[in-house]
C-alpha cells in the first residue's frame, strides 16, 4: 500500500534510507571493516575487462559504476544500453565479466544481451531486485538489491540500491586487483555506512523542493548538467522529469555545453546544475556561469559550501548534506527524484502510471 503517501513513487523515494541500509547489510562486514559480496567463491582477480549492460535508469547506475570500477580497480569498462549491445557485434575477450543491471530482471533487451554474452563465454553477474526473475536465474553470479517491490513506473529506490551494490562490487574488484589496502577499505565501509543517514538528510528538503516546483512546471524544456559521477545523475534527472511530467529534458556533461547545447539557453530554459563541492566543483561552476552569462536560469543542487560559493545569481538552490564523493550519487539522486515528482504533481500528471510507459519492458 501507499501508506500515508499520495503516490507509490513518493513512498518509494522515502523508503531509500531503509532499503539502502538493508541492501548494504549483505555487502558490508562492519565489524571487520570489509566490503564483501554474497558470492565468495568467485575470484575477481581474473577479471580483465568489464562490460556493463542495462536500460533506462539501470543504465545510468551502470554509468556511475563505470567511473568507479575504472577509478578504484583500474579495470577497463565497456558500457552499453542493452538494445545497442546486442546488434553492434561487441568484442568480448576471454576472462570478461558482464554485469547486467535491472530492477525487474525481465527487461527483454537486457535479458537478450545476457544470453548473447553468456553464449560468448562471458561470466555474467546480475544486479537485480527481483530474485526470482529470469536474469537472476540465468546469471552465474547473483548480486541482489533489497529494495523491495517497486510499483511506481519511475524507478527510484531500485536505483540507489543498485548504486550501493555497484560501489561494493567496485571495492571488491579493487581489492582483488591489489588496488585497495585495508585502510582504504575501512574508509569505504565508513562512507557507505553513512549513506542511509545522508539519504535521510536529503529527504529533509522535500518541502523546499515542492515549493520550487512552479519554477520548472511551466517550462517546455529543461537541461540538467553534471560532471564525473554527477553526469549520469544529470541524465537520470532528465529521464525522471520527462517520464512523469512530460516536460522535455536533457542531461549533459557540464563541459559539453559549449559544444552545442548552450545555443538553447535563454530565460525560458531552466538549467539544473548538480555540483557537490569537491575536486570537480570549480569546473562545473564555470560551466554554470557560462549559462548564467547567457541569461540562463539556474537551479543549483550542492552542499552548504557549494551553495555559499556559487549560489548567488541562481533562481533557487537546494542544499544537500555534505557527503563523501563515493556516496554523493546516492544522496543527490533524492533531490533529482523529488524535483521530478513535485513538478509532475504540480502539472497534475499520473505520477505512478505515466502515459505510454510500462513498469517492465518485456518486448524489444
Ligand atoms: O527493470 P529494469 O531496471 O531492467 O528497467 C529498465 C528501464 O526500463 C527502467 O529503468 C525505466 O527507464 C524506468 N521507467 C526509469 O524510471
UniProtKB/TrEMBL annotation:
Name of the protein described by the UniProt record: Glutamine--fructose-6-phosphate aminotransferase [isomerizing]
Reactions that this protein is recorded to catalyse: D-fructose 6-phosphate + L-glutamine = D-glucosamine 6-phosphate + L-glutamate
Assembly mode: Homodimer.
Signal peptide residue numbers: none
Listed GO MF terms: carbohydrate derivative binding; glutamine-fructose-6-phosphate transaminase (isomerizing) activity
Cell location: Cytoplasm
Highest taxon of source: Bacteria
Enzyme Commission code(s) on record: 2.6.1.16
Residues of the active site: 359
Protein task: Catalyzes the first step in hexosamine metabolism, converting fructose-6P into glucosamine-6P using glutamine as a nitrogen source.
Residue intervals of the SIS domain: 38-179, 212-354
UniProt lineage: Bacteria, Pseudomonadati, Pseudomonadota, Alphaproteobacteria, Sphingomonadales
Organism field: Sphingomonas panacis
GO BP, sorted A to Z: amino sugar biosynthetic process; carbohydrate metabolic process; fructose 6-phosphate metabolic process; protein N-linked glycosylation; UDP-N-acetylglucosamine metabolic process
Amino acid at each position: 500500500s501507499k501508506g500515508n503517501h499520495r503516490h507509490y513513487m513518493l513512498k518509494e523515494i522515502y523508503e531509500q534510507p531503509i532499503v539502502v541500509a538493508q541492501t548494504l547489510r549483505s555487502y558490508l562486514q562492519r565489524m571487520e571493516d570489509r566490503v564483501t559480496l554474497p558470492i565468495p567463491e568467485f575470484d575477481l582477480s581474473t577479471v580483465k575487462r568489464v562490460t556493463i549492460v542495462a536500460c533506462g535508469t539501470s543504465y545510468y547506475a551502470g554509468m556511475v559504476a563505470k567511473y568507479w570500477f575504472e577509478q578504484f580497480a583500474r579495470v577497463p569498462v565497456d558500457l552499453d544500453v542493452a538494445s545497442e549491445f546486442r546488434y553492434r557485434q561487441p568484442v568480448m575477450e576471454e576472462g570478461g565479466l558482464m554485469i547486467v543491471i535491472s530492477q525487474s530482471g525481465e527487461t527483454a533487451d537486457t535479458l537478450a544481451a545476457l544470453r548473447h554474452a553468456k553464449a560468448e563465454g562471458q561470466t555474467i553477474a546480475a544486479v537485480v531486485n527481483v530474485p526470482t526473475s529470469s536474469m537472476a536465474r540465468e546469471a552465474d553470479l547473483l548480486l541482489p538489491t533489497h529494495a523491495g517491490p517497486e510499483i511506481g513506473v519511475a524507478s527510484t529506490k531500485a536505483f540507489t540500491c543498485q548504486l550501493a551494490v555497484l560501489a561494493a562490487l567496485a571495492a571488491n574488484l579493487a581489492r582483488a586487483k591489489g588496488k585497495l589496502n585495508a585502510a582504504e577499505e575501512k574508509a569505504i565501509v565508513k562512507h557507505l555506512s553513512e549513506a542511509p543517514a545522508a539519504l535521510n538528510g536529503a529527504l529533509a528538503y522535500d518541502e523546499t523542493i515542492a515549493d520550487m516546483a512552479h519554477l520548472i512546471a511551466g517550462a517546455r524544456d529543461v537541461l540538467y548538467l553534471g560532471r564525473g559521477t554527477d553526469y549520469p545523475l544529470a541524465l537520470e534527472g532528465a529521464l525522471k522529469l520527462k517520464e512523469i511530467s512530460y516536460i522535455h529534458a536533457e542531461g549533459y556533461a557540464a563541459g559539453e555545453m559549449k559544444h552545442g547545447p548552450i545555443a538553447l539557453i535563454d530565460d525560458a530554459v531552466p538549467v539544473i546544475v548538480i555540483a557537490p563541492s569537491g575536486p570537480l566543483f570549480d569546473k562545473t561552476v564555470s560551466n554554470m556561469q557560462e549559462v548564467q552569462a547567457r541569461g540562463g536560469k539556474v537551479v543549483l543542487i550542492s552542499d552548504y559550501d557549494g551553495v555559499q560559493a556559487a549560489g548567488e545569481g541562481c533562481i533557487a538552490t537546494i542544499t544537500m548534506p555534505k557527503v563523501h564523493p563515493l556516496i554523493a550519487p546516492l544522496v543527490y539522486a533524492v533531490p533529482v527524484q523529488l524535483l521530478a515528482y513535485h513538478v509532475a504533481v504540480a502539472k497534475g500528471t499520473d505520477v505512478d502510471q505515466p502515459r505510454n510507459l510500462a513498469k517492465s519492458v518485456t518486448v524489444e
